[in-house]
């Protein structure tokens, strides 16, 4: 199966967001999520074999900088035009350096090519500012993890 790639088109760092297929990318994807979303928060029970990661319409993505995995996220198509962004994580030692923006830029390109017009995310409270800086808007603030949305301009699939 051919890997979907969404390279940086600004010509600066050699980064790209790839759809996870290869075993080495699956390992990195789970290592990043386990470390950032579970271990760093004192949580246990991470399941690297969770069926949602391989469900039809769910797309695990990995941010690579010069072929080094730095971040992970999953895009779950929910309808013809709406998708949820899940489990966004950047390696702890690389946070605060713009890699989250890179990951989200690649994810948005991927979503646009799948004709998604609206993204949703359940954000950790401390990540709301990050999403707002990228053009997301809070639509449900009352939950433990607020829900944010972003409208996309779609690109035709070639």
UniProtKB/TrEMBL annotation:
InterPro entries: Acyl_CoA_acyltransferase, GNAT_dom, NAA80
SUPFAM superfamilies the record matches: Acyl-CoA N-acyltransferases (Nat) (SSF55729)
Domain N-acetyltransferase, residue spans: 16-153
Pfam family, one: Acetyltransf_1
Secretion signal span: none
Name under which the protein is recorded: GNAT family N-acetyltransferase
Species whose genome carries this gene: Rhizobium indigoferae
